[in-house]
Each structure stands twice: as structure tokens, then as C-alpha cells.
Design goal:
The complex is a heterodimer of chains A (426) and B (510). By secondary structure, chain A is an alpha/beta fold. Chain A is 29% helix and 18% strand. The relative contact order of chain A is 0.12. Chain B is 39% helix and 15% strand. The chains are: A alpha/beta (426), B alpha/beta (510). Chains A and B meet through strand 7, helix 13 and helix 14 of A and strand 4, helix 3, strand 14, helix 16 and helix 19 of B.
Chain lengths: 426, 510
């Protein structure tokens, strides 16, 4: 029966509950309800949870009346039951200790398995490519203060490097040919000013072959100069071509107004993204959004080197926000194995350099390295695609680390991974 | 639209209760009260009305006994939470299956094939009683002492070189097995040598090769130097000790055990490193040996864990069926007859059918198991299954017979070929192959749409009896059969708790 003392109860925790133990700090997260139970310095509970997680126990342990008479244990068991996280089951119902199919996230093509024996990290590697971002050029007549930095934090245009150089369309054509059988989920097209790209028409023809949604990023000051060209894009495959209109401060309202009027009208599927670096700018952006009835505007905080406090205090994420987002078990597993923001995504800069993340060193050169080589390098090194909170400080010590959103570029730029107000207590 | 239930209720033989949700791919241990509530839901009873009718303590729930009203209410609320969270839905299986296979899919499979197996010769220097090309069977081409034409094989490799080097190939630096099969492949050793040398000098951008063969070991004394130099992986067929090998005889009916054993011992002494890393054994289980005997023989004599297979049960001649079943022995049954069953099972691990069944369950029906990173990153991105457990042709293997027939596997009848290769070239019409496959699958589609085991089915359509008329799938499972199937695997895990982690950590589905 596997119940040596013939104890009266099986205690179990359900498999939809994500459990994290970091020394004396324990978190149980009910993925169905978003509720959590958090314990610190509760040795009896820590011991009990560790027993449950012990591989041989498979999340089911016998409990005695004596153990259950302990207020700490009893309170814990009651809390688990009341929050629908597990059950106490009388052992008299069965002749054998039951099991839970306990969470062990397993990817058959995990790099750790592909490195074994006769297998190769290159096995089915093209399946991993799911997104592509192209910086077509560095041509732009504007002189935005954020130009050299914002693109390192979010999808944003830049003309800060290698001005005059633009993506070689023939090399790109070769790269696209190698992408056969990749399952591309989205494409991002950025500049400079994308309408200054000399081979734009050819590129649009090439993009036509993909069935993925394609997002064109354009600063409103450039959009203002290109109404006819905007029409061209809107006529192409309007069902899966989308415009991302970037608005940074200070805003020239007299130029923004006609652009908004045009792109929020018929023929465009537009998202307006306000790049803000202070609470004042955020408020101003909200007013503009209200004034022009912008549907579902996005507000993208931007670190300009002087506004660290905005991120470390005002925007610092709290426990309730993390659990309030109600990450699913699959979200949690994905964050355990990869960085879902970066994984599968390649970025090609206007000078032909290819990146898995623009803040890391290049993984290849367009035209010189094959798509296969580029992906292979990133899969082996895993510096961007497989960078998780489990392997950076201080997050690796935090019980919320897999519930928390994946590591972002902003955290790289700020040099701080924990943009939260959770104090590490383990 | 016909649907099947997502929620499977399971009761193990020792009396534990579980739920498996086929949509969420999630197993749950259940309290008997919750099991009772879900049973009512599954049979269409009005649970709400039942709950409203419960006014007093205690609540009697046979056969479990009496429970407090508050406990029953608690589990009713838990049921409501599960339901609100997506449990207990219905599945339209027709929608879950891919409608048909396309020519593109065939090409994709060819470009990403994992193994090419050449039937090097149909000649053999043995005449084993149970041979797949022997008296028991009728589903193979006549054996005519033929060798596969080397020009045909090179044509095939040239064809593959082109698609392996193309963007159809999704892998890089991947290993492909080139395997030699017979008859006894070493009877046509010049072919083997020429193919190995041919591939060594050809340019492949994304692939490299491992050579392997199944051999009866009779000629190893003469040819082992070249095989060892090229690290050819050997799978030597041997059924155990001398008494176990009575069915393995030469063309005159003489026993061959002692010659084979001598060759193996010489190989082991001459190339100990090669023997350790590249030589394995396969035993056919029949009525003259046992899993226990075979295991101990190879473990003690060569420190190897053999593969042990039962005889193929399809394609048996009507006139020989009785004799066949007298010769046949089942691996699981034989294992259970072993005295040191538990130790053998731990050591043989995934080479045993019981473990393979549990492993399939844990890899295919488990929310924690994913094929690749993308499947985890983008839920629902995994390609739809084709009905039955038949592989997409060539997704795993290409098998070329001595007559140049191209098949997806050596374990199916040679009448199911999809193309031909000859000294003049290759004929493999992807459109036609897809159509042939789709027509075969269509015979089972209706059964698959109702089968609860559709996600872990291993039934190959080409191995079904009565294939040409109205084949009936022996693996079909209705609700209660599937529940029983899951219960058997959970029973196993309840009794072998350490196997769960071992399977999840050590077994990898390639």
C-alpha cells in the first residue's frame, strides 16, 4: 500500500498548482483562480511541501492524525483545500497510494537532449524561427532625442548607426528562400524612414509570400511626409498588414493631427504607440489619445538615462500585478525553458548584421552566414532565446520568478532584472 | 457534428480515482466525492438538482460511505471551478484530424527523413523458422537470390542529396542513418562498402551519416575490420543461448549458434571499444526462449541489454496460423513470468513494451511534454494528426527493397510501395503517394473519429487485416476501453513510482 504506518489520510496538491520553493520561502499559485499562498520561515510547511515534491512521492503523502493536529500543518492543509489547490483523501478508499502526474516540463528537442549522443542541436532547428524584424535603412530627416536608444528597448525606428547603408535586397531574398518551412508568426518592418528604402516595392513583393501578420513601424513625423506611400501599403494585403505609428515627445500636434486623421481612417489597421519617459508625458499622451479618439493606444515607457526612478519606483511591478495577470501553466513552463519575448525572433539591421537581441552581439551576417548557422549559434549559446529569470540574479532566488513577465530589453538597458517591489527573502 | 467526451474518469484496480481531461491533457487525482459528482455529469444527470436536494447530514454515497454536506458542497464548488476553467468539454475529433495529406507533406518528409534502409540482398545464409520472409508469411515479394543494384541505390542517394541540400531540409548538422538490411546484408558486402565510400565523397551541406546494419553474425569474422573502421552500428540477431536458438539454422537445417558466438567473441576481443559502443543484440521471442533467459544470457556474457521483440503477427498464411501461434510468445507475458521481474524491468527499461506504453502516455497525453520549443511557445501550433497511428510516409524512414520498391518502412507488406528506383532513375510521384496514402487512411477515418485513443494510436493502417475490404481497427477504444487503458498505465505508475521521473528525464522521443 506504500503507507507504512497505515496512516488515515493522503494529502495531495493538484497539478494545476505551480509550486516554487526557494530555501525557506514557498509560493503556491493556483493557475485556475490566480490565487496564491505564500509562506516564509515556516519550517513545518516547508518540510511538508518538500516531501510532496520529492520524486518518489509524486505529490501524494500520507498524513497522520497527529500531524494534522499540529496547528501549522492543519492550517496549511485547510488553506490548500479551501483554495481548491489540493485535497485530503482518506486512505481507506483504496489499497494503493495514488499519484499525481507531477509537473516536469519536458521538451523532446530541448538543447540538453540534442547535445547527447548522435543527435545535433541543429535537429529541426528551422522550426524554432517564428519572427523576423527588419531594419531596412538608417535614413531619416528627423532628429529625435530617443533615436539612438529607444530601439534597444522596444520596436522603434532608429537612424543612429551606419547611415547610408540599407539592407541588401538580394541577400535578403536568399535569406527568405532559406526560410522555407519556417512557421513565421509575425514580421516587423522598421527604418529609419521605411519609405526612404530604395527597394521598398520589391520588398513588399517578397513579403507578400508570407502569410504572417506584418507590422510597419513609422514615426508620425515621417508619416506626415509620406501620405501617398502610406496609401501604397494600405492597398497591399490590408488584411494582414498593420501600421504601428510611433509618437514621441515633444509632440508637434499640428503635424500629428493630420497623420492621425489619415491613419485612423479607412484602409489602415493602426496602433498608435506613445513613447513616454515621464508621468507628465504619459498624462499628455492620454490626453492626445482621448482628444483624437485613438482606439487602444499603447504607452511605452522609455529610459533616457535620467529617469531611472520612473522604472524603479513608479512602474515597479507588485505581487498583485504579477498574479493578477493570471499566467497560465503553459506561460510558466515557457518562462522556465526560454525567454518568450525573444525566442524564435531574429533581427536584421540595415548593415546586414543579424541579432537574436539587439542588445547582444551579432549572431551572423546577412549574405555570409546561412539562416541555419545563425539559428544554430543562438540555440547553442542561448544568450537571448533561452535567457530566463531562473538563471539571472536576483530573480533566480525569487519564488515569483516564473510568474513574472519574461526578461525584457529594458532590464538589460537598466542593468537591473528585478523591476518589481518584491523583496527577496530567501 | 459528432463529439466525444473530453473528461475521462478512471478508477484503478486498487481503488484510486482520477480524471484525465483530453483537451487540457491533464491528469488529476480525485477525491471519491468529486469522482461521484463528475460521474453524474458524465452520464448526463442533473447535478445541480441533486445538490439542491441535499439538505441534511450525512450524505450517503455508496460504495464510499457517508460524508458531511459541507464536504460534498466543497467538491461541488470544485467541480464548478474545473468546469469554468475549461474542463469537461466535448471534442470534435474530425476537426482535430488533418483532412488529407498533401504532396508537399510527402516532399517535406523526404527532405527530413531520419533513416534510409537498403534491402541489400534477399539472400540469406540462414533459414530461420520464423523469418519474416519465410514460411509463416505471405506479404512479401518472392525471394529470388537477388541483390539490390548499386546504381539504383546511388540514384536514390543522388535524389536525396538534392533535397537534403535544399531549403526543404529544416535541420542542420543532423545525423541520418543509412542502414543495411537483408536477407543477410553481409552476403552483399561490396554494395555496403561502395555506398559508404560514395557517401563519404559526396557533399552534404546539412547532414552527416551513421551506418548501421542488422546481421546474423555468420560472416563477421571475415568482414569486421571494415565495419569497425567505419563505426558501423551492428544489431546482431541472436535469441539467447544454444537452446534458445533452435529456430536459427543454416540452409541445411544445422544449428549455427556456436559459429555466431565464436564470431562475436572474436569481435569483442579484437575491437573492445567498438564492441562496447556500436554492437547490440536483438532477440526474437518465441516458445523456445524467455525474456528472463535472454536478458541474463546477454547481460552475463556480453554485459549488454538486448532488444527483445515478438514475432510480427500480420501477413500470416491461413494454413500456418496454428503453428505460428504455437511458436509465438508475448514479451510482456514472458516478462511477468520472470522471477526477478522487477530487476529486469528496471534494467531493460524502455526496451520493454510496458514501459513503452507508459512512456507514450506520458509524452503524448501529458500537458508537461512538448515536442519542441515552438510547441510550448505557441500553443496549438503543432501540426494536426492524420487518422490512425500510421506514420506520414517517409517521415521516419525510407526502405528500398532488392527489387527497387520504395516503402516507408520494412515492417509493412511490400505490396504497399510508394515508388520505384532503378538503374535508370527514380519514380516517386509525391502527388500519387499522397493520394495512395489518403485512400488507405480513409478506410479507417470514421473509426478514428470515434476512437478515444486517437492521440496515442500506434496502429499502422498497412498492418491491418482485411485491408482491401472493410478493415476493423483492433486498437479502437470507446470511452470505457480508453478509461481502462489509462487505468492500466496509472496502476503501473502507482506501483512503480520511481519510473515516472526516470521516464520523464531519460526517455526522449526523437
Amino acid at each position: 500500500m506504500n503507507n507504512p504506518g497505515n496512516l488515515p489520510y493522503w494529502f495531495t496538491i493538484d497539478t494545476y498548482v505551480h509550486i516554487t520553493v526557494k530555501r525557506n520561502w514557498i509560493l503556491l499559485y493556483n493557475s485556475l483562480t490566480g490565487q496564491t499562498l505564500e509562506f516564509f520561515n515556516a519550517p513545518k510547511i516547508t518540510k511538508l511541501v518538500k516531501r510532496l515534491l520529492s520524486p518518489g512521492n509524486l505529490m501524494v503523502i500520507p498524513l497522520s492524525e497527529e500531524e494534522l493536529s499540529d496547528p501549522d500543518i492543519s492550517g496549511f492543509v485547510t488553506g490548500i483545500s479551501e483554495n481548491f489547490m489540493g485535497d485530503l483523501i482518506e486512505t481507506r478508499f483504496s489499497k494503493q497510494r495514488p499519484i499525481q502526474v507531477m509537473p516536469v516540463v519536458k521538451i523532446d528537442k530541448d538543447v540538453k537532449y540534442l547535445k547527447r549522443g548522435h543527435r545535433s542541436v541543429g535537429e529541426s532547428l528551422k522550426l524554432n524561427l517564428t519572427g523576423l524584424t527588419l531594419f531596412l535603412n538608417a535614413e531619416c530627416k528627423m532628429d529625435c532625442p530617443m533615436c539612438s536608444q529607444a530601439f534597444r528597448q522596444t520596436n522603434c525606428c532608429t537612424a543612429s548607426q551606419n547611415r547610408g547603408q540599407e539592407i541588401d535586397i538580394e541577400k535578403l531574398r536568399g535569406f527568405f528562400a532559406e526560410m522555407k518551412n519556417c512557421n513565421i508568426m509575425n514580421l516587423n518592418i522598421l527604418g529609419g524612414d521605411i519609405f526612404s528604402y530604395s527597394r521598398l516595392a520589391e520588398l513588399l513583393g517578397m513579403l507578400h509570400k508570407f502569410s504572417a501578420p506584418t507590422y510597419f513601424y513609422l514615426h508620425y513625423l515621417n508619416a506626415h511626409l509620406h501620405f501617398p506611400e502610406l496609401e501604397t501599403i494600405s492597398r497591399y494585403k490590408s488584411d494582414r498588414y498593420f501600421l504601428k505609428l510611433l509618437v514621441s515627445f515633444p509632440v508637434q500636434k499640428e503635424l500629428l493631427a493630420p497623420v492621425l486623421k489619415r491613419v485612423l481612417g479607412e484602409g489602415f489597421k493602426t496602433t498608435v504607440i506613445f513613447i513616454v519617459k515621464s508621468e507628465e508625458e504619459f498624462n499628455a499622451a492620454e490626453s492626445i489619445a482621448a482628444m483624437y479618439s485613438i482606439p487602444e493606444p499603447l504607452f511605452q515607457p522609455y529610459f533616457d538615462g535620467s529617469n531611472r526612478e520612473l522604472f524603479e519606483k513608479d512602474l515597479a511591478i507588485a505581487r498583485e500585478e504579477i498574479t493578477g495577470a493570471k499566467p497560465s501553466l503553459t506561460d510558466i513552463y515557457a518562462r522556465q525553458k526560454m525567454n518568450p519575448r525573444d525566442f524564435g525572433r531574429l533581427i536584421i539591421r540595415n548593415d546586414g548584421r543579424i541579432y537574436a537581441n539587439v542588445n547582444r552581439s551579432s549572431t551572423g551576417i546577412l549574405g555570409s552566414d546561412s539562416l541555419y548557422d545563425v539559428i544554430y549559434r543562438e540555440m547553442i549559446q542561448g544568450k537571448s532565446w533561452r535567457r530566463t529569470r531562473n538563471n539571472v540574479m536576483p530573480c533566480k532566488k525569487c519564488v515569483f520568478n516564473l510568474l513574472c513577465p519574461p526578461l525584457s530589453n529594458l532590464e538589460i538597458i537598466l542593468g537591473r532584472n528585478n523591476l518589481c517591489n518584491i523583496e527577496i527573502v530567501s | 457534428m459528432k463529439t466525444t467526451k473530453a473528461c475521462i474518469l478512471i478508477k484503478t484496480k486498487d481503488g484510486n480515482h482520477y480524471l484525465y481531461d483530453r483537451v487540457l491533457k491533464r491528469f488529476h487525482l480525485l477525491h471519491p466525492v468529486l469522482f461521484h459528482i463528475l460521474s453524474q455529469v458524465n452520464t448526463g444527470s442533473n447535478v445541480e438538482a441533486w445538490m439542491e436536494g441535499i439538505k441534511n447530514d450525512p450524505v450517503e454515497l455508496p460504495p464510499y460511505g457517508n460524508f458531511s454536506r459541507s464536504l460534498v458542497m466543497h467538491f461541488y464548488r470544485k467541480y464548478l471551478l474545473l468546469k469554468a476553467s475549461g474542463y469537461m468539454g466535448e471534442i470534435d475529433q474530425e476537426d482535430e484530424f488533418d483532412s488529407t495529406l498533401s504532396a508537399e507533406t510527402i516532399r517535406y518528409s523526404l527532405a527530413n527523413v531520419k533513416q534510409i534502409t537498403f534491402e541489400v540482398t534477399d539472400r540469406c545464409n540462414l533459414k530461420c523458422k520464423y523469418c519474416g520472409y519465410g514460411d509463416f508469411y505471405e506479404d512479401y515479394d518472392r525471394r529470388e537470390n537477388k541483390n539490390l543494384d548499386i546504381r539504383s541505390a546511388k540514384n536514390l542517394l543522388d535524389y536525396f542529396a538534392e533535397i537534403w541540400n535544399s531549403p526543404w531540409n529544416i535541420s542542420h548538422r543532423r545525423n541520418i542513418y543509412i542502414s543495411f538490411y537483408g536477407g543477410e546484408p553481409l552476403l552483399n558486402f561490396p554494395f555496403i562498402k561502395e555506398i559508404i565510400e560514395y557517401l563519404k565523397q559526396k557533399k552534404f551541406v546539412h547532414n552527416h551519416f551513421t551506418f548501421s546494419m542488422t546481421t546474423n553474425g555468420m560472416l563477421l569474422n571475415k568482414l569486421i575490420d571494415y565495419l569497425a573502421e567505419n563505426n558501423v552500428k551492428l544489431l546482431i540477431s541472436l535469441d539467447g543461448d544454444e537452446e534458445n536458438n533452435v529456430y536459427r539454422v543454416d540452409l541445411n537445417g544445422n544449428p549455427v549458434y556456436s559459429k555466431i558466438i565464436r564470431n562475436i567473441e572474436d569481435l569483442k576481443d579484437t575491437y573492445p571499444g567498438y564492441f562496447k559502443d556500436h554492437v547490440n543484440f536483438n532477440a526474437v521471442l518465441q516458445n523456445k526462449n524467455s525474456v528472463e533467459g535472454v536478458y541474463h544470457f546477454f547481460k552475463e556474457r556480453f554485459n549488454k541489454i538486448p532488444s527483445i521483440n515478438s514475432l510480427n503477427t500480420s501477413g500470416i498464411k491461413e494454413s500456418r496460423k496454428q503453428e505460428f501461434w504455437e511458436t509465438y510468445s508475448n514479451v510482456s507475458d514472458s516478462l511477468h513470468d520472470s522471477e526477478d521481474y522487477s530487476m529486469i524491468e528496471k534494467d531493460m527499461f524502455i526496451k520493454l513494451p510496458t514501459l513503452q506504453g507508459v512512456s507514450i502516455l506520458l509524452h503524448q497525453l501529458n500537458e508537461f511534454a512538448f515536442s519542441d520549443y515552438r510547441e510550448l511557445l505557441v500553443p496549438g501550433v503543432a501540426p494536426k494528426r492524420i487518422p490512425t497511428g500510421t506514420c506520414v510516409p517517409f517521415s521516419k524512414k525510407v526502405f528500398v527493397t532488392v527489387n527497387g520498391k520504395i516503402l516507408p518502412c520494412e515492417r509493412i507488406g511490400q505490396q504497399f510501395y510508394f515508388g520505384n528506383v532503378s538503374p535508370d532513375g527514380i519514380e516517386l510521384d509525391e502527388e500519387e503517394a499522397a493520394e495512395k496514402y489518403n485512400n488507405s487512411i480513409d478506410k479507417l477515418r470514421k473509426q478514428c473519429n470515434r476512437c478515444y485513443n486517437h492521440k496515442t494510436c500506434v496502429q499502422c493502417v498497412f498492418n491491418l487485416e482485411n485491408f482491401n475490404n472493410n478493415p476493423v481497427c483492433k486498437g479502437f477504444m470507446n470511452y470505457s476501453q480508453f478509461s481502462g487503458h489509462l487505468a492500466a498505465h496509472i496502476d503501473y505508475l502507482e506501483q512503480n513510482r520511481d519510473m515516472y521521473m526516470k521516464i520523464m528525464k531519460e526517455v526522449v522521443v526523437e
